[in-house]
Amino acid sequence: MGTRYRGPWAALLAGTVVVSGCTVGGDDDATGDGGDGAPVEIAEQVLAWDECETGLPDSECAVFEVPLDYDDPDGERIEIAVKRLPATGGDATGSLLVNPGGPGGSGHDFVDHAPYTVSEAVRERFDVVGFDPRGVGRSTPLTCLDAEGIDEFLGTDYGGGEGADDLADLGPEGLAEIEANSRAFVEACEENDPDLMRNIGTADVARDMDVLRGLLGDERLTYLGASYGTHIGAQYAEQFPERVRALVLDGAVDPSQDQLTVSVQQATGFETALRSFVEDCLTRPDCPLGARGSTVDEGVAALDELLAGAAEEPLANSTGDGREVNRARAELGVLAALYTENWWPRVREALTDAKEDGDGTGLLLLGDDLYGRADPDEYENSTAALTAVNCSDSVAPRDVEAYADAAAEAAEESPMFGPMLAWGALTCAFWPEEAVAPLGELNAVGADPIMVVGTTRDSATPYAWSEALADQLDSGFLVTRDGDGHTGYRMGDACVDAVVDEYLLELTVPDDGMACASHLVEEAG
Question: 3-class DSSP state for residue 85?
């Protein structure tokens, strides 16, 4: 399945490209950057904006081209789809590039949520611009498994199978199944697009973003990235520090951790979020996890009992698509709801249906929302992009036994979600080694101040990751939101919103950074 860092909003006509054969360079141009730091020769392009087929009435769409492989700039090109929502104030002072996370989330579609995800003051000053990263959606997409294959992949139970000692142990048959599924996923990517799967990492996405910055005519980049989008922003600052104006990295990923370690650490975030959800549920008269006065531990135990029942006898599915709502699919539904408090009422209702009527449809549909299955016959390609980017961005163990050890470790932190998250990284054990980026910190030496926003009880990106990224970035500073759910900006904390807006609009940075805790502003130590 892989580690997903997706912003909470994610469940929420291309123009003609003009090409000629001249060399483009300089900060004002679309240049990209070669693997050796030298400018890449990219054919001159013009963003030919046209009316979008979908989205807000004033939005405009276009397409531009980038090299598939920046080490071969004269070779094959791929397309990047971009959408722009013009500034409400008339003459924009620049562009605000946005990304909702993923990997695999659509920055193109994210623009349509701008009235909710960006303040009116920022929208008045900036064109809001989003693009689908390479391999995603409307850009040249990476396709691996078909819908039936993804259904099987996501429906794999990650523990407690026949012959298993406990929930963190797959047992012999379970291990054989997940290893086969993981290998099949990689083989499908290899068969469908071996070149794109080797050139889909975030370092290349950052280069694509610099091409877009130049095409937009912005001398320096202003950017808002949520969840995995923080990694895109940090990679950009690492490669192009002198072109940074203002970067807001909200709900950060720690680039210094390998993929399996990240999966294990993510389990702690979801465990924290789960306990917050259960605690809130137990204050309500209709909570399916226990009566008022029950403890959080008792509520979590009731949920685990329900999920264990789904492992023994799958819950009913009224969609008619034939999928069994086993433990894995029921867990995905609960996991999806932990990204944002806005979904807590929905998961309470789904759990009530499961407990009282044996109906898992609500949980199944929550998981579908997380993994882009709006169409009953197909998925968005976000699962392929998610896996490919995660496996390309950092090293992962090649020994299957390492994942068994990690599953046991993760189960200590999160008995419910830990094994699923650890075993879900197994695909990376079979990813082509030449396609994997080296591990290391991102420091972005020379960049202007970069804001990192961390939420104390973030589910998908633990708060410690935001602390780590702010420390790694030479000019990084941390803004803390004390709260639940994933990411901090525009999530109901007026303090965080004000600090982010002042930074984006006026480049205001407190001397020692700033923390917003319980809606109080205080100096960060």
Answer: strand
